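Annex B.
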Amino acid sequence: MGTLYQKQAPPLLQDLKITILDTFPVFPSQETVRKSIFLSNIDQVLNFHVQTLHFFPSHKDFPPHVVADKLKIALEKLLVTYDFFAGRLTMNPETGRLEIDCNAAGAGFVVASSECSLDEVGELVYPNPAFGQLILKAMDILNKEDQPLCIFQVTSFRCGGFAIGISTNHVTFDGISFKTFLDNLAAVAAGEHLAVVPFKDRQLLAARSPPRVSFPHAELLKLNTPLAQESNASVFDLSKESLDFKIFRLTSTDICKLKEKANTHNATDGVRISSFNVVTAHIWRCKALSYEEEGEVGQDLERVSTILYAVNIRPRLAPPLPASYTGNAVLTAYACAKCKELEEGPFSRLVEMVGEGAKRMNDEYARSVIDWGEINRGFPHGEFLVSSWWRLGFEEVEYPWGCPRYSCPLVYHRKDIILLFPDTVDNNGVNVLVALPSKQMGKFEIFFHKFLST
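Omega-hydroxypalmitate O-feruloyl transferase: predicted structure tokens.
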């Protein structure tokens, strides 16, 4: 019940012995119309890169060099439909807003090889700092001002397996629209039509005129600096303190037991007792109660803990956004409670609070958040964020060479972000990736098992 993935993390390969074989730009296969792409207030604060890794076993019909060729050709075709992906991020001097100049300057493409085999790389579920060698983050052959919004890297391993590393600027996609892009990439690589026609009009998430902030937004922190100067800022702690790193596995049986516990008090009126809600409530309690201020002894039960988590607003707007909406259509929901309630209150109430955070995100609330971003410059703000890659389905994308053995983001150890990933063994289970200072990690682990068993 609620086991550690392994009692001790396996030794991680420190150097994948990568050789870069080729680096070049990839351009749209047809001429595209030059235009500027409007970026919503949700897009505006996401000017940073997200790196994802997709590992594949060897395939006799698709050796890595064939895969690289097929991906290059497919990407050239997709850059016609996804014209903004071949563009460049610019600042409009009149509005002070970020835009994408669809100038067909191209995406980046890298071909590399590793002297290691996939088996030597080890447990792929463990975020290894060396995985950073599988994704090129900038193109040295281009000027700093001309960096692409997307870079692909295909790395072959000695065994014939390979990894596809993709670095994308977050202004282009959220996780849902990136999954659609991958489905289209796989379809075009197989010689088929687009799996889903992307909907690219981001004006649907423009602020109202005049903007109308109709709710207090405790989940947002106002900044006093212009947005352009805050593109690399973060409200989360970026300190370099030493952190322990562990993966906690919740099996489908564990999750069912959490759902049963949430049902016992019948407090979750109108709130769905979903797998995400019960897992998030369980993590919230463990994380909040393991927190301690430096120099303090014991837990301040009057302290208020705020948890943040993403909600897809596509189906929540009136009218709903198209499911294939291309940009960022995810907002940050929140729940707040005193540590005393988290420790002593019924689990069903915690699940209810998590569910209420998502339920709050209706059309008017989402529009209020977007309008807040028109008036203010700021970011989501809370004690920690649950970032879920659990149900995005990257590992289900069917390429001509098969589905990935494992897909994941490139992970950096951060004590204020807890990551949820699919379990490689149990399709309905989840792996919880936690990084904390040693003492707090010990407390988190105790609470994790205690609250599962009671």
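The chain has two domains: 18-205, 220-453. Residues 39 and 214 are 22 Å apart (CA to CA). Further annotation is deferred to the next reporting cycle.
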